Amino acid sequence: MNSLVGKVIAVTGASGIAAASARRFAAEGASVQVFSLNGEEATAVATELADRGTETFWMAVDLADGDATEAAFAAGRARLGRLDGLFGVAGGSGRRFGDGPLHEATTEGWRTTMDLNGLPAFHAARAALRIMLGEPGPGSIVLISSVLATDPSPRLFATHAYAAAKGGALSLVKAAASYYAPNGIRFNAISPGLVDTPMAARAATDADTVEYARRKQPLAGGLLDPADIAAAAVFLLSEESRMVTGQVLAVDGGWSTTEVG
């Protein structure tokens, strides 16, 4: 449990996968920065970590605002002295805004879903990268994608704007990994299956979806635990993966390899 000793890791988001990851990073010895639109959740996670002795910085910030994101990351660096890694988790479903099958999706639903997922990833990665380029050591940036970007489930998860946004994260990781490798900065992505998070609350209470997850994610026997995603993030942010960049790690309980009718 010492994979991140001496490192400063930023996390965007403060619930579900982000919260589980912040706790795991702290357990691995990292100092942790938490940036989230939800100030109450960010405060709760940061306070919990601080009470356990972890050096922590948190800030409520709208990650869709580029200037605000830059200011937040600059404040985090000023407080903790450096930045070694970023785990970009913040995002969400666009169903309530009009995301859905392409022929039914609204323009507003498409735009809002793309912004909800794309802007936080872009702004956080850019802010972290600008800091890392001025640091003497290597850096690691890990973005959250989704199994739906590469292995769709049309009957239950026909959210095409969300899939497109998460597919964009994969393309960004590939392009950035190539460009910034000479600087010692790595870019990778994690592609989770259906995870037991607040975002999946609707799915977790739908019997049809729960049964589908049981069969589609046989290693989990249902929805994945956020801790499983956090474990993968530790690997990609640690020196254990120092020769890994431009890769997508599917943590999906078998979703992408299991055929379910």
- Calculate the mean pLDDT score and round it: 96
Our Rg estimate from Cα atoms comes to: 17 Å
Instruction: Give the beta-strand count.
Output: 7
Q: What characteristic shape results from the CA principal axes?
A: globular
Number of separate helices: 8
Cα-to-Cα separation, first versus last residue: 40 Å
Order of the strands making up the biggest sheet: 3-2-1-4-5-6-7
The biggest beta sheet is recorded as: 7 strands, parallel
Can you tell me the CATH topology?
A: Rossmann fold
**CATH class call:** Alpha Beta
The named CATH superfamily: NAD(P)-binding Rossmann-like Domain
CATH architecture: 3-Layer(aba) Sandwich
Query: What percentage of the residues does DSSP assign to strands (E)?
Result: 5-15%
Helix share bin: 40-55%
Question: What this model shows, in words?
Answer:
This protein is of the alpha/beta class. It has one domain (8-257): 3-Layer(aba) Sandwich (Rossmann fold), CATH 3.40.50. The chain is 43% helix and 15% strand. It has 8 helices and 7 strands, in the order βαβαβαβαβαβαααβ. It has helices spanning 16-27, 39-51, 66-80, 107-132, 160-180, 201-204, 207-216, 226-237; strands at residues 8-12, 31-36, 56-60, 85-88, 139-144, 185-192, 248-251. Strands 3-2-1-4-5-6-7 form a 7-stranded parallel sheet, sandwiched between helices. β4, α4 and β5 (139-144) form a beta-alpha-beta unit. α1 crosses α8 and α4 (107-132) packs parallel to α5 (160-180). The radius of gyration is 17 Å and the shape is globular. The mean pLDDT is 96.
